[in-house]
Design goal:
The protein is mainly α and 347 residues long. It has helices spanning 8-11, 19-42, 50-57, 64-97, 109-124, 129-151, 160-182, 186-197, 205-224, 226-232, 236-241, 246-268, 274-286, 290-315, 323-342. The protein has one domain (12-346): ABC transporter involved in vitamin B12 uptake, BtuC. The longest helix is centred in the first third of the chain and has 34 residues, at 64-97. The radius of gyration is 20 Å and the shape is globular. Pfam families: FecCD.
Length: 347
Amino acid sequence: MIAGNVSPSAASPGYGRSNRGRTLWLAAIVAAVVALCALSLAIGTRDVTWSEVLAALRGHVDSIGEAAVAMRMPRTLLALFAGAALGLSGAVMQGVTRNPLADPGILGVNTGAALAVVIGVAWFGMTSAHAYIWTAILGAGCTAAFVYTIGSLGRSGVTPLKLTLAGAATSVAFASLVIAVVLPRNDIAGGIRSWQIGGVGGATFERIAEVLPFLLAGLVLGLGSARKLNSLALGDDLAAGLGERVALARGIASLAAILLCGATTAVCGPIGFVGLVVPHVCRLLVGVDHRWLLPFSALAGAILLLAGDIVGRLAARPSELEVGIVTAFVGAPFFIWIVRRQRVREL
């Protein structure tokens, strides 16, 4: 189940970074997460003071500003959790497939989860939040298996290029199916189209509480797969020789990515490119050791989604752009750069 032969030493110029340098970067990234959370609470259609932010954090909602901050709290938390989930899932997918272009959006996993949810809503009248989550996870899992099967056809087996093309074709086909399912249903079309863009607006603590167990399960499985992904990076034969159960290791890591992608898509809609951009940037900072790369990818994913949400609020005030649009503006050029840098003929 390997999609290429990228050695650890060749995968990133950040290989072999010192632990001291990584620790400094970790402190900087944590500080950036805290700062962006504060800005997310303070910035919106209504300007608030820092005293109102602090008062709202203490539970006060006496003024309009404090009430505005209280309404932004779940949105900020959702952006934090969803960004971390997407960043981590992208790093895990790239580790499992050894494919530098692996990403929940590019491989069609997000679109598969979205299609499953749309079918559930349109054909089966699905309304329960837990049903949304389980259906999205099932759709993500089935799509991942389908894309891998298509990408493995042929004599050469799975390659990064074949996997990427299979994912892109699947994503386009499933997006068309979503439109076909929604078109006859004017009663749900508006809500589905808005959800399809991908965003964190309208978040509530209740929605976060419903999806949080799935995100935590994916987080634990993903971070726990770090050593196994380091072994898989050496190749299946060498990993097996070191005592690694290759199929089980890849299965657990894949399950983590599917849980994270499916749960995030259920609550936010399909948000693309976070899982592509973040791991590549983190490799430049901390190298290819997954024990460092995975937690850094989670934190950096939170940074990207928080920053994207803030930019979306500022770019179209008093209205706003959904964060899925902002990440597309960032990720699409990055994807082109990665393809050119990796020289797609050699993938």
